[in-house]
Design brief:
Layout lengths: L3 E2 L4 H17 L4 E3 L16 H7 L6 H13 L2 E9 L5 E8 L5 E5 L9 E2 L5 E4 L5 E4 L8 H9 L4 E7 L12 H20 L2 E11 L2 E2 L3 E5 L5 E5 L13 H4 L2 H7 L46
Parallel strand pairs: 1-10, 2-3, 4-6, 8-9, 9-10
Antiparallel strand pairs: 3-4, 4-5, 7-8, 10-11, 10-12, 12-13
């Protein structure tokens, strides 16, 4: 679900989340996925000062997450929400917590937290079992830009990926001013491809922020294990829903490809640094004896004469 958030107004944002859960309960939805940092409401925290960050940060058992958990209990609908977490050692994390009916909570800390120098990066993947018969993984925003992160989540058994996001670097017309913003704009297409690669459902939710500089455009999307988009919307506060057929998981090509992997070939993935000097098949000719290649394209609709 995309959600209109007010920057710095956690009470308002949590109230909107509770309203959305009540609506979801009427539609018999079991899980609602809200955007990254939807509780704090900021699309970007890069320019916030220390005092502003401290005012946003809450522990996992803080008032905002407790209020979300209460709304989950009242509605019977599970919810995933993003917030700025203050850890027990006082470090800050861009975190995402899934609150389940019954009181269970699963929290993921963003692995690639490049938004602010005071926000630390997480150091582990988050995958957990559910009563729905699917295993859920969480990757936040830029975590999804790296192919390895989704593959690792799939190898840990996840068959449903929660992929919250919050667009950054957009002006009023939606033009992207940064490379990260451009990647974020194409993320829905990337997620569709990677859902098919890994044979998993993907639930994507992008945030909407209203501020003095304009409004970023949110989006919501649900993708099946074959990479097909089951539901999508760009409307504000749009509750996009779909019934997930678990039978599509085992029958997907992605799950078959996972079993065909050959880990002994992937040693480079565990090494750091520049891999271009690694051992490859030797070239058959030196640059002095290389043969120049040229290509020509023939139209299918024109006969060759």
């Amino acid at each position: 679900m995309s959600l209109v958030s007010r920057p710095g107004d956690a009470a308002h944002n949590v109230a909107r989340i509770a309203d959305c859960l009540a609506l979801a309960a009427k539609k018999e939805v079991g899980l609602v996925v809200f955007p990254e940092t939807c509780v704090g409401g900021y699309a970007s925290m890069a320019k916030l000062h220390r005092a502003e960050l401290d005012a946003l940060a809450e522990p996992l058992d803080g008032p905002s997450i407790r209020a979300v958990a209460d709304a989950v209990e009242g509605s019977g609908v599970a919810a995933g929400v993003g917030f700025l977490e203050r850890a027990a050692d006082d470090r800050l994390f861009n975190s995402y917590v899934v609150c389940l009916p019954g009181g269970m909570r699963h929290c993921h800390r963003k692995l690639h937290a490049f938004g602010h120098r005071r926000i630390s990066s997480g150091d582990r993947f988050t995958v957990f079992d559910t009563a729905w018969g699917v295993r859920v993984g969480i990757l936040i925003g830029g975590d999804n830009y790296l192919v390895e992160n989704m593959r690792m989540t799939a190898l840990m058994g996840a068959t449903l990926l929660i992929a919250p996001h919050r667009s950054d670097g957009a002006n009023r017309t939606g033009d992207r001013r940064t490379q990260a913003g451009s990647i974020g704009q194409s993320l829905p297409r990337l997620l569709s491809a990677r859902a098919g690669d890994n044979g998993m459902f993907v639930v994507f939710s992008d945030g909407v922020e209203i501020s003095g500089s304009g409004q970023s455009s949110g989006a919501a999307m649900i993708v099946d294990p074959c990479g097909r988009i089951l539901a999508a919307s760009r409307a504000r506060d749009a509750l996009v829903s779909a019934d997930l057929d678990r039978g599509l998981i085992d029958g997907s090509a992605g799950q078959q490809w996972l079993t065909a992997r050959r880990p002994e070939l992937y040693g480079l993935l565990t090494r750091s640094g520049d891999h271009r000097a690694a051992d490859f098949e030797p070239r058959g000719a030196t640059s002095r004896g290389a043969i120049a290649l040229s290509f020509a394209q023939v139209s299918r609709n024109r006969p060759i004469r």
